[in-house]
Amino acid sequence: MTFSGTSVRSGARVGLPRAALAVAVMLLVAFAPGVAAKKKKAKKPTDPEALFNPLLGIDHSRWLVGPIAHLSSLEEIEQYLRLTSDDEATAFIEAFWAKRNEGTPIFQQTPQQRFDERVEEANKRFSEGTIVGSHTDRGTIFVAYGEPSSITFEKPRTVGGPAPELWEYDKDSKPGLDGKPPEKQYRFIKLDDQTVFFRENMRRDPRLRDPLGRNRNRGFDG
After folding, report:
1. Cα-atom radius of gyration of the chain, to the nearest Å?
2. To which H or E segment does residue 26 belong?
3. Which segments of the chain have a pLDDT < 70?
4. Please, are residues 70 and 178 in contact by the beta-carbon 8 Å criterion?
5. What pLDDT digit, counting tens, does each position of 165-198 carry?
6. Which of 12, 87, 120, 174 lies deepest, with the highest CB count within 10 Å?
7. pTM (2 d.p.)
8. Where are the domains of the chain?
9. What is the per-residue DSSP string for 97-130?
């Protein structure tokens, strides 16, 4: 069979040259791990404003803030933020806890009951300013994993500096309400009127400087 002076055998396949096909395969293999890596990098939001659903009423709009976001999967958070009515939110919350309460022996507290008890206690112990205790960083960890094995205050690194608060959990601690064991240590630091997680990138925070402008946490190992 002949087209425009080019001979093609009858029944022969017409497609990409082998070299071009090989290049396409190599590109696919090269970029596939990158795509997978991007998916793995997705993290759950923790900022209260990112967890706020303005389409819901006051009883539901901030339901995700604090320990609930810690216990939820990224998919659950995204689903809740897409809800547009309080009825949908109520149904979602009921399903959320039904999933976690399922299989609890009748003589044991359900995860929801433990959650409610810890929220009440966290609100008494960790409320600061206008922030309810269970929505604070300490409250979130307390609700998720319960009372730590020890709470101590480390020595301030400069005069007048805030004393880092260290929470420690035993290495054989039981899984928390998120189904995972707690980290061995959690550190918190007082910034203005709120106690938050201490992170390395806070070293240059102006709120951690003494009146002479020196970093209050200089030398802090984190």
Report:
1. 27
2. helix 18-40
3. 1-41, 157-158, 200-222
4. yes
5. 999 999 999 999 999 999 999 999 998 889 999 8
6. 120
7. 0.73
8. 131-222
9. HHHHHTT--TTS--HHHHHHHHHHHHHHHS-BTT
